[in-house]
Amino acid sequence: RSGRSAALRARMEERLLGARFRYLNQQLYTGSSRDAARLFSADPAAFHLYHRGFERQVRRWPERPVQRIVRYLRRRPASLVVADFGCGDCTLAASVRNHVHCFDLVPLCPRVTVCDMAEVPLAAESVDVAVFCLALMGTNLQEILGEANRVLKLGGTLMVAEVASRFEDTHTFLKAMAHLGFRTVSKDLSSSYFYLLEFTKTGPARPGPVPGLRLRPCLYKRR
Ligand code: SAH
Prior knowledge:
By secondary structure, this protein is α/β, with parallel strands linked by helices. It folds into 2 domains: 1-59, Ribosomal RNA-processing protein 8, N-terminal domain (Arc Repressor Mutant, subunit A, Orthogonal Bundle); 65-201, Rossmann fold (3-Layer(aba) Sandwich). The chain is built from 7 helices and 7 strands. It has helices at residues 2-30, 33-42, 44-59, 65-74, 91-95, 141-151, 170-179; strands spanning 81-85, 99-104, 112-114, 127-133, 152-163, 182-188, 194-201. The chain has a 7-stranded mixed sheet with strand order 3-2-1-4-5-7-6, sandwiched between helices. The mean pLDDT is 95. It binds S-adenosyl-L-homocysteine. Residues 28, 33, 36-37, 54, 65-66, 86-88, 91, 103-105, 116-117, 133-135, 137-138 line the site of S-adenosyl-L-homocysteine (SAH). S-adenosyl-L-homocysteine binds next to helix 2, helix 4 and strand 2.
């Protein structure tokens, strides 16, 4: 009997965690990056819960997108300076020899600099590679990508890995990226889980509205 009630209780707890994860996830994808920063600084426990849920989701995928970015960096000189926007558990920094600036809202590991990714403490044109691996969550995409443009050197690389279903129209999205000073170098749309996009910074972001710059929120269904 006590075995059964323990199992029931464990199942209930799982359900609650799942529900809280989905709720937090929805907040992150439907608010600005600043809202996210406020949410997690007010409640760091929510952040840890979010990360457990995130881990559970990506474990189901055949390949972790961050591994693709690791492979990409290993093919390029280790002298390149990298900025990892929304670094999570710092898998990227731990897997390459490059100097990696790790940015996230709460430190899952000691090398994280805590900040909102729309405002990172780096000098203009100071990094060679900027990375957003499943991290373009805020609705203020123009501001976030503008920040990546600011810290990137001219000719520097922007790598974006995002959930495939978030793209409404890839062509329009890439046109919007060009408006923000990012020319598409390569796009791998072969996975049904995530797209991998590589850009070069061609110049500063052009000001003004960028209509096609939109990604659908990534909402998980109850299982
Ligand atoms: N890049 C990691 C983690 C992806 S999860 C990986 O691929 O494993 C997305 C990460 O972005 C989370 O750790 C989340 O906390 C972070 N994030 C979301 N909004 C952010 C913001 N406004 N500023 C900084 N980090 C943010």
